[in-house]
Every structure is written in structure tokens, then in C-alpha cells.
Write a structure and sequence with these properties.
Layout: E1 2-3, H1 9-15, E2 18-24, H2 29-45, E3 50-55, H3 60-65, E4 73-78, E5 81-88, H4 93-103, H5 106-114, E6 119-128, H6 132-143, E7 148-152, E8 165-166, E9 176-177, H7 178-192, E10 195-198, E11 202-206, E12 211-214, E13 218-227, E14 231-233, E15 249-250, H8 253-256, E16 264-268, H9 272-281, E17 287-291, H10 301-309, E18 313-316, E19 319-327, E20 330-337, E21 343-348, E22 350-353, E23 357-359, E24 389-391, H11 403-421
Length: about 425
């Protein structure tokens, strides 16, 4: 792989008809996840397209000129001009290939795709999901000398990586930034010897055969599988929600609260997540209106007391949202009073939705036993209803979902698995 600096950038772009540039940083998990994909695609497309890398912090002037604000960032050039998508963060192989294909004639693309050979990977334990449950399991398994491979369509950490601060994880006196706690867990798993394939596309999962196909060409075979795919925000499915997702509606306070400095926001929900995140959003917003369907909050008592004492927070009890709309520069939330059936609109600058979670099991079609909410049922050793398939973390049926309980689940599953394998 060729590394260049900003002094020769213009010459590289001018002398190569087709070029792809990777702006990377050190100590950057997404950059580490991209590196093997970038190298592999260089081997496939390198005869036609120039692949180069550039250290972002050492070439700030060019990075700022090109609008590069995060690492990694992939830029594509044709005949000296930037084309295609700007890819950042957890970059998928298929997204890179789509942009590379767009640079080449169709016949050449067919030749390159035809040259891709299937890859077979063997491991003792395949962990699906690199959140706290999966990472804890990987640490225990790897330290027990069990060959362990983690696969995740995103980056390590799960929901923890987008949590502002974690104040109740044992061992830390001061609150920890969620992304750092997730990073440390992932690094600990790597040091222990666990392998990781993250920011990949999971094409197919066959639990009976213990096979998982990733990126359309690599088949991973395992003796045992641990499902720790976590849970995702539950959507309201009301008018305008999909249309304005990311354009006024957010599901992540850590990601977006900073954009509402001295502005008004509406929070949908009254459970633990909604009330706890309102405390963080209150650091930025000038006013918060919380819309709660019940005549009371369902969050823990401590969180409730903080929210009720915050002068910025006003709670609209016994109301539910019925639609989201754009009114010029503002968002409008149509809400219904569940006691009177009266409708009214709330004018706001942005909306945060926190109405619960759902298990991430969309890719799993095998007949595993689930509870009434769709979460996986497991026994006290984290076994599912299928032999050699375990589950841990937020994806399983249980009353309490916390980082510590996910870590506990992963610990139990890993010890049971290790004993059976060795």
C-alpha cells in the first residue's frame, strides 16, 4: 500500500486517471477495521485504480480543504476530480466496491467480480455481535485458549459506544465516556487473542450448520455460536418519522444533542432511557418538552427526581405523538391527549425518540425459542433452544438490561462453552 502526503497529492491525482484515497488516523478502531478491506480491494482493483493512504493528522491542510473531518474517510477521484460518495466511519466493503465499480467500464467490473474467490474461515467459537456481552465472552474464551472470532456489522461496543457517560460500571471512580469503555473492552479482547471482523455485511446465518457468510464471499464455520447482537431503538411508526429521521428526529442523544445548543427539543418517552438522556440533553437545550403516554414516568426514582427538578424540562403526561412535520426551520410534533382525544402541535427545533428497544434478530431465520416480545429464551447457562447455540446480552429475554448484565451473560456463556470445547 502506497502512503503519500499532501505535498504530492496534486501530482498523484493528475498522473492517475483513477484514484482512491484513504485518510486514516492512528489509534482509530474504524481505521483498523478498514485496513484489511482496503488492502484486499487493492489486490482486486489495483491494476486499474491507484490505491493510496494519507495520515490525516499529519496532513491537516489538505484534509480541511477536502472537507475531511473524521477518520477513516475514503475519497474517489476520476480525471483529477472528486467523484462518488464520501465514505466515513465503519465503512463496508460493498460500499467501497460500489464506488470502485462506478469508476470502471461494465465489462471490466464483471471480470473483477468473476475473479473473487470464496474464502473459508474456521474457528472454534463465532461470536455474533461485539457489544459488552460479546466482548466479555471473547475475553474469557481467548484467555482460555479457545479460538474465537467476533463478527459485527458495525464497530465494537454496541450501544455503549454512543453512550455519553457510564457512571455505574464497576472499577471506575469517575464516569467514563461510553466510547472509551467500548474501546478498552475491544482492545482487551484483541490482546487476549480474539480475532475480529467488524463493519462487515452479514449475508447469511445458518445456525444448524454453524455457518455465517460475510461480505458475500467469506464463509465462517464454527463449532459453537454465541449470539450477542443486542437491541436497537424501537420506532413509533407514525407519519413523518422515517422522512425526518436524521433531519430533525434523532434516536441518539450523544450523537446529536450538541446540535441543539440554546434550542428547544421534544423528547418522546418516559422510561429510563428517555429520562436519563434528558439530563444530558438539558446541558445543551434551552427547553425540553417530554411527551409521555402514561400519567406518570416509568424511569427509576433517582432519574425521575432529577428530571422533575430540572427547570428546563416540562412533562406532558398522557399524550402520544401522531405525526412529525416540518414547519419552515422548525419541527412540529402532533400529539394526542389520551384523556380528551384532543390534538395539538408542539413547535420545536428537534425531536429525540426513546420508546424502548427491540432485539436485533432480523438476519436469524432459524427456529429459536423466543418470548412474547421477540427476545431469545435461554437457560441459566445461556443456551438457546438449538444445540451449540448460545445467546447473551440485550438480545435475550430478561428483566434487566444493563452493561453489567450483558457482561455477566457473556461471562457465563463463555465459561460453559470453554468447558465443553476443552
Amino acid at each position: 500500500m502506497i502512503e503519500i502526503n499532501q505535498d504530492v497529492f496534486d501530482k498523484e491525482v493528475e498522473s492517475n486517471e483513477l484514484l482512491v484515497l484513504d485518510f486514516y488516523s492512528t489509534e482509530c478502531p474504524p481505521c483498523e477495521a478498514l485496513a484489511p478491506k482496503f488492502d484486499a480491494l487493492d489486490a482486486l482493483y489495483g491494476q486499474d485504480i491507484r490505491f493510496v493512504k494519507m495520515f490525516r493528522q499529519g496532513n491537516r491542510d489538505l484534509a480541511e480543504k477536502l472537507g475531511v473531518r473524521s477518520s477513516p474517510t475514503l475519497l474517489f477521484f476520476k480525471n483529477g476530480k472528486q467523484v462518488g460518495d464520501v465514505l466515513t466511519g465503519g465503512i463496508r466493503r460493498s460500499d467501497i466496491m460500489r464506488n470502485l465499480d462506478a469508476l470502471l467500464p461494465e465489462a471490466r467490473v464483471e471480470q473483477i467480480h468473476a475473479s473473487i474467490r470464496p474464502i473459508d474461515t474456521e474457528t472454534e467459537v463465532l461470536v455474533l455481535g461485539a457489544g459488552p456481552g460479546g466482548l466479555a465472552a471473547a475475553i474469557y474464551l481467548a484467555q482460555a485458549k479457545v479460538d474465537t472470532l467476533l463478527v459485527d456489522p458495525l464497530l465494537p461496543g454496541g450501544q455503549v459506544s454512543t453512550t455519553h457517560q457510564v457512571s455505574n460500571y464497576p472499577g471506575f471512580i469517575d464516569p467514563q465516556p461510553g466510547y472509551m469503555l467500548a474501546h478498552n473492552m475491544a482492545e482487551q479482547a484483541k490482546v487476549a487473542g480474539a480475532r475480529m471482523k467488524v463493519a462487515v455485511e452479514i449475508s447469511n446465518i445458518d445456525l444448524k450448520k454453524k455457518e455465517v457468510l460475510i461480505d458475500g464471499h467469506e464463509t465462517i464455520r464454527a463449532k459453537k455460536i454465541l449470539i450477542s447482537t443486542g437491541a436497537s431503538p424501537r420506532y413509533l411508526n407514525v407519519e413523518g418519522e422515517k422522512e425526518y429521521y436524521g433531519k430533525g428526529i434523532s434516536y441518539c442523544a450523544t450523537c446529536d444533542a450538541k446540535y441543539f445548543h440554546d434550542k428547544e427539543v421534544v423528547i418522546i418517552g418516559g422510561g429510563n432511557t428517555a429520562v436519563e438522556e434528558s439530563e444530558f440533553i438539558s446541558k445543551f437545550a434551552s427547553k425540553i418538552t417530554m411527551v409521555q403516554q402514561f400519567p406518570y414516568l416509568t424511569a427509576n426514582r433517582s432519574a425521575q427526581e432529577k428530571a422533575m427538578a430540572d427547570p428546563k424540562i416540562n412533562i406532558l403526561f398522557s399524550h402520544e405523538p401522531r405525526g412529525f412535520y416540518r414547519r419552515g426551520e422548525k419541527m412540529a410534533v402532533k400529539v394526542e391527549n389520551l384523556e380528551t382525544n384532543e390534538m395539538k402541535e408542539l413547535q420545536t427545533d428537534g425531536v429525540f425518540v426513546f420508546v424502548g428497544m427491540k432485539p436485533n434478530l432480523e438476519l436469524i431465520n432459524d427456529p429459536l425459542e423466543k418470548d412474547q416480545w421477540g427476545y431469545l429464551k435461554v437457560d441459566h447457562e445461556m443456551r438457546t433452544s438449538m444445540p451449540d447455540v448460545f445467546a447473551a446480552g440485550d438480545v435475550i429475554s430478561k428483566q434487566i438490561r444493563q452493561i453489567t448484565t450483558a457482561v455477566s451473560d457473556g461471562t457465563i456463556a463463555s465459561i460453559v462453552i470453554a468447558r465443553e470445547l476443552h
